Amino acid sequence: MDPREVIERARAEGRTALTAPEGRLLCEAYGIATPGEGLAGSAGEAAEIAEKIGLPVVLKIVSPDILHKTDAGGVLVGLRTAEEVREGYGTVLANARAYNPGAKIDGVQVQQLVGGGHEVIVGAVTDPTFGKVVAFGLGGVLVEVLKDVTFRLAPVSGDDALAMLDDIRAAEVLRGARGAEPVDRAALAGLIERVGRLVTDHPEIAEVDLNPVFADARGAVAADVRIIVGDRPEEVRRLPREEILRQMTRIFKPRSVAVIGASAENGKIGNSVMRNLIDGGYRGRILPINPKADEILGLPAYKSIADVPGDVDVAVFAIPAKFVAAALEEAGEKGVAGAIMIPSGFAETGNAEGQREIVEIARRHGVRVLGPNIYGYYYTPENLCATFCTPYDVRGSVALTSQSGGIGMAILGFSRTTRMGVSAIVGVGNKADVDEDDLLTFFEQDDNTKAVAMHLEDLKDGRGFVAAARRVVREKPVIVLKAGRTAMGARAAGSHTGALAGDDKVYDDILRQAGVVRAPGLNDMLEYARALPLLPAPRGENVVIITGAGGSGVLLSDACVDAGLTLMDIPPDLDTAFRAYIPPFGAAGNPIDITGGEPPSTYGNTVRLGLADERIHALVLGYWHTIVTPPMVFAELVARVVAEEKEKGNVKPVVASLAGDTEVEEACEYLFEHGVVAYPYTTEKPVAVLGAKYRWARAAGLLR
Amino acid sequence: MDPREVIERARAEGRTALTAPEGRLLCEAYGIATPGEGLAGSAGEAAEIAEKIGLPVVLKIVSPDILHKTDAGGVLVGLRTAEEVREGYGTVLANARAYNPGAKIDGVQVQQLVGGGHEVIVGAVTDPTFGKVVAFGLGGVLVEVLKDVTFRLAPVSGDDALAMLDDIRAAEVLRGARGAEPVDRAALAGLIERVGRLVTDHPEIAEVDLNPVFADARGAVAADVRIIVGDRPEEVRRLPREEILRQMTRIFKPRSVAVIGASAENGKIGNSVMRNLIDGGYRGRILPINPKADEILGLPAYKSIADVPGDVDVAVFAIPAKFVAAALEEAGEKGVAGAIMIPSGFAETGNAEGQREIVEIARRHGVRVLGPNIYGYYYTPENLCATFCTPYDVRGSVALTSQSGGIGMAILGFSRTTRMGVSAIVGVGNKADVDEDDLLTFFEQDDNTKAVAMHLEDLKDGRGFVAAARRVVREKPVIVLKAGRTAMGARAAGSHTGALAGDDKVYDDILRQAGVVRAPGLNDMLEYARALPLLPAPRGENVVIITGAGGSGVLLSDACVDAGLTLMDIPPDLDTAFRAYIPPFGAAGNPIDITGGEPPSTYGNTVRLGLADERIHALVLGYWHTIVTPPMVFAELVARVVAEEKEKGNVKPVVASLAGDTEVEEACEYLFEHGVVAYPYTTEKPVAVLGAKYRWARAAGLLR
């Protein structure tokens, strides 16, 4: 029978769980090995099947009315002779009848007893964000108590399936740790891949649980198959990339911006937006819309957007929610590309209906809606501050987005205090329409943007995000702060795999696979955003620590291990070369401890050597404040050496930790301005930033 | 045979590994269950023994001439009846004779067959820092691949042994997860306790490996015993607490400080120390010692410390290493309590001999040596800046120590920039003599010190530290930054347990047991040091988040889970009470989302309720910068409400995360000054600090 028919029959019968034989049929159709078996209608038939498929066997009652077979005494394990099978048939049948006298009994399943090797779990679930997702883990305690499981979007390629085997903490076990038999990796990966194809081809399959799968050096057999079916998930509506780009370009580089609800009155949102557009230096047309004014802040005002001569690219809404729908109709008729929906009072206050209404109006007119419930957006290359906050003008190359207004304000404050250069700051708010993948699609091709950092609480379309992120990551880092990490969704799960698919583990695995650099917290996101665009990409994994303080060296080494960085094993000739510059009681090796109290030349020589030797790929500097080499002397020296070596083509990421009195703060600012990511009073932060840069570089394929 | 004799015999024979029967003897002497066994000389005797110790059994030929028993057919496993044992005896004997007709045969060993239940490992090692340490873990993959193991100082109390069962990641398994049989916890803990006593009573035992131990509902049996013996470790020299305290009090509260190598010449260390003592405002006698000067910086100078009239409490050394020994002899003869040994050029540059020499001189005179190779020390209650750095005068209640000069400088810079109030900053450098337990002994009883933060790379006397820390922690938090976390010592190990005892895991478990709050990095240590003394101790685990930004609320919740905090389950009456103050679309529950755009009164009412309701034990505030409630309005309001509720006896820790434009920085400073730990642009840091406070409060027994 065709898999489609199997599924349809179950659905037609109102069943969500497929029977074991049905599950087996699906497995067979996809080349997923299951134990040999047959359905027996009599004791003699059972013995015959057992001898054919090979003893020992398991007997299981088959009845649509008996779900918990074991409770019913409907399972017998390890029958070793034809005689035992014959007797067992009677026992199972009698037990089942005693348990539920009315049960319809289809027969007794005779199944080859498999076991030995490694017990693993392969499954699939339908994730609300990402759709079909495949899971893999080692069976037993490891997956159930320690949750040692890994997820991937379905379908899974052969390479990805192989990578999954290495992505669990106990991966070593499958390679034959403790004298265990190594598994046939190709066979096990193949089985994972097949499960991915099965659920991709048949979206009606909600969950698959192959648990246990027995994997050994000879192959992988799914001993137990549990498949749950449901409704076909709705298709996600996605616009073609070109259309997104066309609209987003009009939104970020508008020739004209209308402010609906523009006001001359201080304290009004429509006044703040007008001021910020003007004070920010936006050079396109600014069009105040207000039925009661002729002029606002020196600019001619219009009663309605319809009255504006010529095209309008963007309409910023600064009016109460109840007036939005009518104004949006007008803006749509006018042909605006983007409606910047500042007003609150939609889904976030329970007004989901109002939100649906504006989305419907916007769709009808082909208008993209940013928000509602946002602070607006900034795009510095156009001097565009379409927001009710304050202008921000430090141009730079990172684009930041936030789902929450509070986080947006934190981005703005942090940017201002650190003078972080940004290309864009965008509030996405309720994400009624424009979401992160739309923005990624724009930033991907935006030459003003070299890195993207996004705060998000959820994704409307996980797959759309992954696809966009994968493209962007090839060229630019994408940093994500996913809030709600620890809120394990209380999910009604019909399978083991479902129970394991806590929101965050799925997010974490899939974002990592998409090449996204996940920030563990808000401050990390901000620091990564500030620092990553400044650092050149590393060309290899060899990191060297050069430190004036042995104490910092130890802490920097700890931090490198935490950040997944590789401390270079310094070859003898390089060791000799470093030793030539440091005191005899200093330590070459890695960290290179140049010792305290050294003059600037010792820092200069060793840093220069570190930049010049092509076997070294990144430097971590530990500075110790002394009278001999004061903080600003160190900063200027390092900046100069880095610049000189850059001239010679020696471009490498350099980060620094400065330990000293308060002058080190100024020195760090100076270094930052000169492309060296430096922090005072912390050994962790500079290394964490370097680690983030490396995570991106690996995802972008730069270190293969 | 007495355990002592067993060990001595092995050592006399030049053996380090005990034989299986020897190991068994030691186990028996300590009540550690091993499988029952006996040596049979006849088939009848074999059956008799088997029935006595319990069937099933294993039979093994015992012959000095047959090493590979299995190859000789000399092992039979799983004999279930007396009859099988009788027959088996003959089989084993016949096989052995066929294998080696000339073999001398001592008999057949009859051994109880154990297995089933849970396979666990119990062991002990001799740690270079902590001495005898007991280990526990689940056997197999969990301990060997995932290193899921826990350590405690030996001896282990019954309660600690029980706690060890819960301290592994897979603890659930022993409680019967996945339908497994729960173990007899008392029996297993008893076995751990006995191993602790065994190695404590017999320090010559270097390592113990009971692997596997089979633990089930009926008990715990060590199926395999491996014991390694060696030399008795040296006893650690410890001074009586009273003596330490007498000396430390003279050092921290000296009536007179001599500066050996005092100088009038700018740039000299002996000049900086003099200036800092004078400029710092020290009010005791300052005694410059310099053979070539009559007066230094306006103070009469002495040729030698011997010439000083009256007692001298402290001598600060500011002379080159080569002159130290002679000057220390003089200082010793003068009866100083402390030699503050700033000079470098000792063990850290390879001059271990020079360091040993000064320790010997100091011991002879009863002088305590701080250093060498340090920046000196500060003790603000006495205005004492005995250091070559710069004076620091912000009095406060945290004492900080560092093993590295660079980290000391970072402490100073951070303190100055955050205006952190400190009682002491102390460099311990090479720790030739004074170490962390000496300092803890002083800070324990120092009313000027409410918290202690220590950077350390190693401990000279781990047990001394633990004993001191345990005492201090009852009253004051002890924060430790242990550097070298990730440098797993490459340790020559003769056992499984030894191989598992990587430096950091042992440190981590034992520091935690001592009640120490371990800081993950330098900046964390500094922030904990700054914030912990400001926060009152919580009286219970119920944490409530009140936030103006939903986005911050989600991130703050994540941070609470990360920090091991418990988000209170708000009871219905309290929920109603909160709802009365927030807009209808806000969310009570926890986080309490008061929504953005709210006036100060909403923050005020909810924070007041949070402080007043006695079921709530700590508050985490999330502020969102708006025009309606600007940052300083929020800060002053919260400070006022906290102060008012404090008047009423409602004293609780309050931390805050401020999201907004740069004005939030000033607001955070204001809040900090008013006892509310507040940070801008981060949701993680305030919660991490609260988490650290809670870790201490739990260790101090305040939350039981």
UniProtKB/TrEMBL annotation, chains A, B:
All residue ranges annotated as the ATP-grasp domain in the record: 24-60
GO MF terms, alphabetically ordered: ligase activity
Keyword Nucleotide-binding assigned: yes
Signal peptide (from-to): none
InterPro entries the UniProt entry points to: ATP-grasp, ATP_grasp_subdomain_1, CoA-bd, Ligase_CoA_dom, NAD(P)-bd_dom_sf, Succ_CoA_lig_flav_dom, Succinyl-CoA_synth-like
Membrane spanning stretches: none
Keywords per UniProt: ATP-binding, Ligase, Nucleotide-binding
Entry annotated with the keyword Chaperone: no
PANTHER family: COA BINDING DOMAIN CONTAINING PROTEIN, PEPTIDYL-LYSINE N-ACETYLTRANSFERASE PATZ
Name the record gives this protein: Acetate--CoA ligase family protein
Species assigned in the record: Actinomadura luzonensis
Lineage, opening ranks: Bacteria, Bacillati, Actinomycetota, Actinomycetes, Streptosporangiales
